[in-house]
Amino acid sequence: MEGKKLKYVKDLVCISCGEKYEPLPTQYLCPKCGEKGILDVEYDYEKIKTDWNKQDLKANPDPSIWRYLPLLPIEPTTPKPTLRVGGTPLYKSKVMAKLLGIETLYLKDDGLNPTGSLKDRASAIAVVKAQEAGMNIVSCASTGNAASSLAGNIASMGNEMKAVIFVPSRAPIGKVTQLLIFGALVLSVKGSYEETFYLSQEAINKRGWYNRNAAINPYLVEGKKTSSIEIAEQLNWEMVDWLVYSVGDGCTIAGAWKGVYDLKQIGFIDKLPKLLGVQSEGCAPITEAFKKGTDLIPVPENTIADSIAVGKPRNYMKAIKAIKESNGDMINVSDQEILDMMKTLGKNTGIFGEPAGVAGIAGIKKAVENGIIKSSESVAVVITGNGLKDIKNAEKAVGAPLTLRPDLKELSQLLNDYNF
Ligand SMILES: Cc1ncc(COP(=O)(O)O)c(C=O)c1O
Ligand SMILES: N[C@@H](CCOP(=O)(O)O)C(=O)O
């Protein structure tokens, strides 16, 4: 199927040199610019506008990402993973808004995607693109979520395809177990994420597997963008003032911008939001480059928020460009602030996010305190991953339960001590 024309995609454009390429499934980076030659999918917005409108969308009962097909870079007839990806809930939370010092806050729980993170949105696209390329082995390097989403989405194809996964050995056991349950070949690398990534690239290139690394593959950001498209639709096309995401490689927040940019181009929304990108203090190379206006300097990966522990992000240019275009900002949070927020969010909303999943909302607190976000501004934040994936860190946030012998007297004493 390689080379089949995509109805609404014009070209792939290099964000560094502007060179255009035919949108082939295996056209990864711009060959002239190497690692900096990240490609962007360019759509024919006029054609989309002629063929598709809000009424069509309203009439479509499919709650998954495939409801946005004209804005996705795939051939509609290619078989899709059967898991329900996307359509995650958006809650308005008065309690959390008050705690953060703002009037309006929306929480999108992307941890309710089928494998527990926003990454399902990207991996579902990768599974489709691999088939369009005629490849049945798909591989990636991952801190865990990209991997589990790829493995799960591939498993849903029923033995048609295989996932080969490279994870750093520090990946949380919950995420690694998910991979094994989904039947992936799992390679646990004794090294950093950067070393793991490098190894995966070498293997993918040598073996000719389909590359699901969003640092390389321009189609994955197109899946990630569906989170902001969903937010817009869930808010009846009235965009909030701020969209907030945690940032590792930078692809997710770049995708969020692409989503709202697309919607503006086809006239579905009038207002674009500002983006707030949140990194962890222990690994914040993109914030550093954004604030100082310098090129990216790789850093060690030293944070409990493993999913955003990316020492040498590859999508930083796209992310910084998106945040700047939006008139947005970046901020860092400490591991302790992340742990505190896991607890606060869980206790006040019933949403359980993994550390990277709640880094965004921890960043809102700081951004309000620093005057970046005004109390009158409306904010939507995506909780990007489910807390059940990383119980060890969740335990650090909440400690252990009360323990007792099966004895009524002891129970009574304990309850009295805790005023119950
Ligand atoms: C839970 C979670 N949050 C945030 C991110 C950050 O996304 P990106 O690396 O695209 O910036 C990731 C990436 O894996 C993630 O898994
Ligand atoms: N932290 C990410 C890194 C890779 O994800 P990708 O979607 O940017 O390729 C993860 O989930 O593994």
Concise overview:
The chain is α/β, with parallel strands linked by helices and 420 residues long. The chain contains 16 helices and 13 strands.
Helix-strand blueprint:
Elements lengths: L8 E6 L5 E2 L17 E5 L1 H7 L2 H6 L30 E3 L1 H7 L3 E6 L10 H13 L4 E5 L3 H11 L6 E7 L4 H9 L3 E5 L3 H15 L2 E2 L8 H5 L1 H9 L7 E5 L4 H15 L8 E7 L4 H8 L23 H10 L3 E5 L1 H15 L5 H15 L8 E6 L7 H8 L9 H10 L3
Parallel strand pairs: 5-13, 6-7, 6-9, 7-8, 10-11, 10-13, 11-12
Antiparallel strand pairs: 1-2, 1-3, 4-5
Helix pairs in contact: 4-5, 5-6, 9-10, 10-12, 13-14, 13-15
Bound molecules: pyridoxal-5'-phosphate (PLP) and the ligand N[C@@H](CCOP(=O)(O)O)C(=O)O.
Report on the architecture of this protein.
By secondary structure, the chain is α/β, with parallel strands linked by helices. The protein has a domain at 90-117 and 220-397: Rossmann fold. The chain has helices spanning 45-51, 54-59, 94-100, 120-132, 145-155, 173-181, 193-207, 220-224, 226-234, 251-265, 285-292, 316-325, 335-349, 355-369, 391-398, 408-417; strands spanning 9-14, 20-21, 39-43, 90-92, 104-109, 137-141, 162-168, 185-189, 210-211, 242-246, 274-280, 329-333, 378-383. The longest helix is centred in the middle third of the chain and has 15 residues, at 193-207. The chain starts with 8 loop residues before the first strand and ends with a helix. The chain binds pyridoxal-5'-phosphate (PLP) and the ligand N[C@@H](CCOP(=O)(O)O)C(=O)O. Pfam families: PALP. It comes from Petrotoga olearia. This is Threonine synthase.
